[in-house]
Amino acid sequence: MSRKYLIWFAVIASVVCFHPMAWGQEVPAGREQQPGQVKHLVIKNDNTRFVGVITYEDAREVIIVTERLGEVAIPKHEIREIRELGEGELRDGQFVGEEMFATRYFLTTNGLPVKKGDSYIQWNLFGPDFQFGIADNFGVGVMTTWIAMPIVGTLKRSWQLGDNTHLAAGGLLGTGSWSRPDLGLALPFVAITRGNRSHNLNFSFGYGGLKYDDEVYNPNTGTYIEKPYREGRFLFSVAALARINENFSFVFDSFFMLRGSYMTETEYVWSDPLQRYIEVTREKRAPGLAVFSPGLRWQTRPESAFQFGFTGARFEGEFVPVPIPVVQWFRKI
Fold it and tell me: Looking at the whole model, is its pTM more than 0.85?
């Protein structure tokens, strides 16, 4: 595998982690939750959560009827957040929670909107990934490796097309930083997602551009000749998320890079008649690449999750299993 393909793979790998609920007593007569009533989630400052129907609210307190504890009065100054539960957070009328990190899979993002203030860090074995929700439907981020090569900035803007359909457009822009300042990459993309934050199917499409200065060694002179390398590839992805229960979700991600165009490569080959190396140019076409990553996400707490999976790749017509598992930690910041 030539160095340019290794650089492509490194860039993709870079571009390619219990507070108690309220349970217990029976609901007092006359205060039972009725079918069809809107349910709310009340989160206290200490992260204790109550799910049920709010029957009363004023400037001092909120009264919520839960299924197990019954009627609970919570002082307003102890409450951090009150919000109505969405369809994706309920299953058969029971609360399963909203997947805070539902905008991400293993390698790719989707069309679901980033919420203002929903900032998090994704720890990977190869390095950190910071994402910031600076406004509703708009987020920015930066990802890198532990040696800060490459450094990639990201941005994404989302739109809702229907009740269960979202569209996003964004891009990635990166540099080789201190190690390869001549290395640059750009990847504009669009993503369309069908589903909600608990169950969804996503299709992403983009065009990745890569440039750097390739060095070719001339054995006749003992020097290196710099030749600019420029290439663009069409990329696409299919990914899915399926909530199994309140704590676990199935995650599937994939990444496809189509074959590149024919490009000229320069090599020096020894010639016996001339008794020296001669320069030879060849037309070569970069092979395609397909990466598949299935796994599980464990929502350890509302503000953190752990993700584990395996990766397989198809390169140059052969399937190549990756022996190192994908291990990621999500943490709200």
Answer: no
